[in-house]
Design a protein that fits this description.
With 339 residues, the protein is an alpha+beta fold. Helices cover 44% and strands 26% of the residues. The strands form three sheets. Strands 1, 4, 5, 7, 8 and 9 form a six-stranded mixed beta sheet that branches. A four-stranded mixed beta sheet has the order 10-11-12-13. A three-stranded antiparallel beta sheet has the order 2-3-6, with no helix packed on it. Helix 5 crosses helix 6 (257-269) and helix 6 (257-269) packs across helix 7 (294-307). The chain is rod-shaped.
């Protein structure tokens, strides 16, 4: 194509030229004309410049919009995370410091329990664990049984009470439970230590691990007595248990009451146990052996029962005191009254 294009031809070609649709030869001819014709060059610039500016402006607007959307989304995400964290912390704090859990019996210590002249059971309760508090004490009665419950929480300004004084009217009641633990039944206060001991009763003295755990639990609450060795006689009746004590022992009045208290508990709670023998060194350096049979145990508790006018607590057999938690508590009351 010759390079002597007229302005009319160039103006007709400019739309295609600007869009890049013309051939290389046509482009050369148009470029040559535009280089010599200011009017056609201005027309070409008018066709391209406004379009580029509009596109740039539109692109800039789109970028600004996307940045704005991104900033807004970022703020929303941050606020959502902060709100979620605050909500979780608030929920955790509410759970730990106020809602808590239902109080557990092992976390409560009954400091005192007594029945007054108005037939009301007064309990002084304190937490075993430091940093623990209780609130919302309530009593639920079903027939002749009442259950006492509370919420157990971590101590804080919201709740810091780690003890409580409770009064429970006993008229019409047969049993009182504190967080699942029996603490009063038919006029008798049930001690926590005895419930722990009673739970380990066993039918066979030949079950050495079970007998050992029972002895250790008695020793935990009433000792330590200083056991050095522990042996069982189970080859033939009478079945027995022999305990050798460590160190020198001096017992006043010739009969060691603590050995009787241990023995009556063991004889009652080990169903086929017939006797308990204690071997110890006395103050003079001699070896002593005290054997306590079922009959000896009954004789031991009969005297305080008669003195204290509590014959109704007596049973025909030491084993009968394992029939229920109430019976075992009465046995413990009889033996403890001997001092």
């Amino acid at each position: 194509m010759k390079n002597d294009l007229t302005c009319a031809v160039v103006r007709d070609l400019l739309p295609s030229y600007v869009e890049g649709l013309t051939s290389e030869e046509t482009n050369e001819a148009v470029d040559a004309h535009l280089a010599q014709c200011p009017d056609c060059a201005a027309r070409r610039d008018a066709m391209t410049a406004p379009e580029d500016a509009a596109e740039q402006a539109e692109t800039a607007k789109e970028v600004d919009y996307l940045k704005t959307v991104k900033r807004r989304n970022r703020r929303r995400v941050v606020l959502s995370v902060v709100f979620a964290v605050v909500l979780l912390l608030a929920g955790f704090g509410l759970k730990v410091f106020y809602i808590g859990t239902q109080a557990q019996e092992q976390g409560l210590n009954v400091l005192s329990a007594a029945v007054d002249n108005d037939n009301t059971l007064h309990l002084r309760i304190a937490s075993v664990w430091s940093g623990t508090a209780y609130h919302s004490w309530m009593a639920e009665q079903t027939g002749g049984r009442v259950d006492i419950w509370a919420r157990q929480v971590t101590a804080s300004p919201l709740c810091r009470e780690d003890s409580a004084d409770l009064g429970i009217p006993l008229d019409g009641l047969e049993e009182v439970y504190l967080c699942g633990r029996l603490i009063w039944q038919d006029g008798t206060i049930i001690e926590y230590s005895n419930t722990q001991i009673y739970a380990l009763r066993t039918p066979y003295v030949g079950d050495a691990p079970a007998a050992g755990r029972l002895f250790e639990e008695i020793d935990r609450w009433h000792g330590p007595i200083g056991r050095r060795s522990f042996s069982l006689q189970t080859s033939s009746q009478p079945y027995g248990m022999t305990v050798e004590l460590d160190g020198t022992r001096f017992f006043r009045q010739g009969e060691p009451p603590i050995l009787y208290r241990y023995s009556v508990r063991l004889l009652a709670l080990v169903e086929n146990l017939d006797y308990v023998s204690w071997v110890y060194t006395d103050a003079a350096g001699g070896t002593q052996c005290l054997t306590i049979t079922q009959e000896d145990a009954l004789d031991y508790i009969r005297l305080p029962a008669a003195v204290m006018d509590r014959e109704n607590d007596l049973r025909d057999s030491i084993k009968a005191y394992a029939a229920s938690m109430l019976d075992f508590q009465k046995l413990c009351n009889l033996t403890d009254s001997r001092g």
